[in-house]
Amino acid sequence: MEQKKFDYNSFIGMILLGAIMLWYFNTNKPADLEEVSKEQVTDTTTTITKQNTVSKETEFYENDSIKQIAFQNKLGAFAQSAITGTEGTTVIQNSLVKLTIDNKGGQIVEALIKNYKTYDSLPLHMIKDNNSSFNINFGTTDNRILNTKDLFFEPTYTKNGDNQVLSMKLKVSETQYLEYRYEMKPKKYMVDFSVRSQGLNSVINSSNPINLDWTLNGYRHEKSIRTENTMYSYYYYKTEGEVDYLNAGKSEIANDVDWVFYQQHFFSSSLLTDTPFNNATVTSTDLVNDEEIDTVFTKKYELKTPLALSAGELNYNMKWYYGPSDYNLLKKYEGTDLEETADLGWGIFGFLNKTIFYPVFNFLKGFLGNFGLIIILMTIVVRIIMSPLVYKSYLSSAKMKVIRPELTALNEKYPGKENAMKRQQETMAIQRKAGVSMMSGCIPALLQMPVFFALFKFFPTNLALRQESFLWAPDLSSYDTIFTLPFSIPFYGNHVSLFPILASIAIFFYMKMNQSQQANMQAPPQEGMPDMSKMMKYMIYFSPIMMLFFFNNYASSLSLYYFTSNLLTIAIMLIIKNFVIDEDKIHAQIEENKKRPEKAKSKFRQRIDDAMKQAQEQQAKQQKKK
């Protein structure tokens, strides 16, 4: 058999085939592996994402279940409100006021009074930045104590004609809830507010007290925090049909409370109720300890009162008022007595302001837009009305001046303490025959005092004067400043006001003129008795200085009034003295009166004479014993 030979062609072909395969693997393996690697990584990421998604979804449902259990344990029947509740606010507003109500607590978290600014030209807020809290605390039948301020209400905004209605519901279910209902009317500060529950008679524990708690830290709004806080910010409330007030640092328990009124000088926050509160605790706290540091808040106002259930449900119709403390506005709310919170003074002072000064001021306001001129015109009207009293007082002074020589001679005739009673009897006899009475000079002055004190209340509390300028004063409801001192003077302050300076100068000249008149009114000084003329000399200088210190921090409108009033009084006195009073005629009239038979004594006069006679006899007996 022929031996097979070596095939060189096959060998070369195998080598070429091997080379080709080596080239193929060396050029294609990295690309293939990279593609495979990419495919594997993509698949892994997708898997992780899916696994994480599934894991997160599983965790969410697990946490949601845990939350439900936690809220159920904490809130019981009201757990759903916390689970489904959302953060958010709703705004209702008209041309006068803007209220922002928070879902959490269903309460007002912002109350803005439009058309007014603070003393430093900022928006005027009664509520903002958590300075107020409205809460109802109640117990449940499963022995939990809850606070509405911590729970979420569901808002529903609707319209009732032109009225805006906001219903805030704290739900147990669709048919079981606690509702706060706000209804705002156009161009009204007063907002209807109701608190009622539905289907909660099996949820609310009637054996536990249900307490309403309304707290407000009053923001400072005016330039003088001392005046705003200490003189015109009060806690008013109507209890048992009477309006009462609370000073700072005090707390009272009141029954049959129709409303509470947190007054902050020109603006107020109030809660009124158709169903009176009983056993209500009202508290006022001063938040100003240092006027240099405590410049944000003035007072803290608190109301804590139990609410009563009716057939196991709450049903209270109330009203919110956030607006000006203006007498003209508040008196329109008939039947509420809110106008009594306008600090116009008590008794005769308040009567004068309500029946005379406000009508006159409102009348003048209808014709003039410059409130400084209105004050001046009002002062002229007041002084003209009071001028007969000035005339009467000056006439009495003139009569006393005429008979003064006789009284001086009487003192010389009956000298010494032992003749004091006799001297007094003769003095009264001379005055009676001449038709002169010491009271005829005092009564006109006394009758002017109610006007002085009434206007002392009228101008600083008149909202119409707030931020109205006149001459150099930018705000007639506050003090004017022409110079700021680098230090503070006790009882005076760290500023210089010009209107009080002018008023003090006018008072000085008025008292200087009036000194001679007062000297004529006084009988000649008797032995052992103080000389009143010397005291009057000191008062001429002391009174203007006291006025300067006292009025430096008061409303510039008040100083403007007193400055104008004293100038007019000086002018009236000069006219009476130079053109009306004739001392010669007065002297002739007195001489004529002396010739007339003395009138029969009144019973009162007779008792005085008898008493003086008895005192004189006792004095004579004592002198004999000595």
Quickly describe the structure.
This protein is of the alpha+beta class. The protein is built from 13 helices and 21 strands.
**Low-pLDDT segments, ≥5 res:** 1-11, 23-62
- How are the strands of the biggest sheet laid out side by side? 7-8-9-10-19-16-15-12-13
Which class do the helix and strand fractions yield?
A: alpha+beta
Overall mean confidence score, pLDDT: 80
Strand content: 15-25%
| Helix share, percent | 40-55%
Give the helix tally.
Answer: 13
Radius of gyration: 43 Å
Termini distance?
195 Å
For the secondary structure, the number of strands is 21
Task: Set down the secondary structure blueprint.
Layout: H1 8-75, H2 79-84, E1 89-93, E2 97-102, E3 108-117, E4 123-127, E5 132-139, E6 145-147, E7 154-160, E8 163-173, E9 176-184, E10 190-198, E11 210-219, H3 225-230, E12 235-239, E13 242-246, E14 250-254, E15 257-264, E16 267-277, E17 280-286, E18 297-307, E19 315-324, H4 327-330, H5 347-365, H6 371-413, H7 420-434, H8 439-458, E20 483-489, E21 493-496, H9 498-521, H10 532-551, H11 556-580, H12 583-595, H13 603-625
Antiparallel strand pairs: 1-2, 2-3, 3-4, 5-6, 5-11, 7-8, 8-9, 9-10, 10-19, 11-18, 12-13, 12-15, 14-17, 15-16, 16-19, 17-18, 20-21
Helix pairs in contact: 5-6, 5-8, 6-7, 6-8, 6-9, 6-11, 6-12, 7-13, 9-10, 9-11
